[in-house]
Amino acid sequence: MTIIEGLEGPALPIVLENRRLCIVDKPAGWLSVPSRLGAADPRPCVGLALQAQLGCRLWPTHRLDEEVTGLLVFAKDAAAHRVLNAAFAERQVHKTYLATTSGPAPEDAALGEAREWSSRLLRGKKRAYVHPAGLEAITVATLLAIEGDRLRWRLQPRTGRPHQLRVELARRGCPILGDSLYGSPIAYAPGIALRAVALDFSASAAARGLGLPAAIEQEVALPGQSPGGLPGSAACP
């Protein structure tokens, strides 16, 4: 592994890079971008570390929670940043996550069936919550596997509200493993059992003009799981 001068630990894993952008596999426990504390925040930051690793300025185009792993996109110039920001803001980039939760399965989920969940979410100081004055949040959730009180999900948010997936699962009695903020009593490390595994750019010709494929997938299993599902579980094809 390459060690980057001035950084603690190994280089961040790059999934795709060209002269306009870079897609990295974000580790758990890392901020996507610097917090309001700036240099006073001791937590590692993907944006800053990746700039040092690549030796160029980067522009963030979206974010993942500190506890979440997976695909994170940075632009390498202001024009690419405008294109990617617009594609995410206009919902032309479709995201897919994998998650493992405690159970039992909620009534509005069925093994192997995609179900649309909707709510209105407000962001508080630390947590998001359902409220009539909140912004619309839409998630397509597919229950992939069941093993006892463990459930494995594919989640496709159609909106990008803060903590959207974490709230939707927790309020159905299925908190993501390790997500103590939303009620999980189960230890899980590193981070929580939520991973961004795919980005679909097929609806944005402008984004594909930056050298992006129609879709990119990084289906790395969550810790303790095989890529196909939970060991010994009932699973959909």
Structural description of this entry:
The structure is a single chain. The chain has two domains: 10-91 and 204-215, Pseudouridine synthase (2-Layer Sandwich), CATH 3.30.2350.10; 94-200, 2-Layer Sandwich (Pseudouridine synthase), CATH 3.30.2350. Strands 1, 2, 3, 4, 5, 6, 7, 8, 9, 10, 11 and 12 form a twelve-stranded mixed β-sheet that branches. The protein has helices at residues 46-54, 78-89, 164-170, 205-208, and strands spanning 14-17, 21-26, 59-60, 69-75, 94-102, 114-123, 128-130, 135-147, 150-157, 194-200, 215-217, 234-235. It is α+β, with helices and mostly antiparallel strands and 237 residues long. The model is unreliable at 1-6 and 226-237 (pLDDT under 50).
Which helices and strands appear, and what pairs or packs with what?
Elements: E1 14-17, E2 21-26, H1 46-54, E3 59-60, E4 69-75, H2 78-89, E5 94-102, E6 114-123, E7 128-130, E8 135-147, E9 150-157, H3 164-170, E10 194-200, H4 205-208, E11 215-217, E12 234-235
Parallel strand pairs: 4-10
Antiparallel strand pairs: 1-2, 2-4, 3-4, 5-9, 5-10, 6-7, 6-8, 8-9, 8-12, 10-11
Features:
12-stranded mixed beta sheet, 237 residues, 2 domains, Pseudouridine synthase, alpha+beta, disordered C terminus
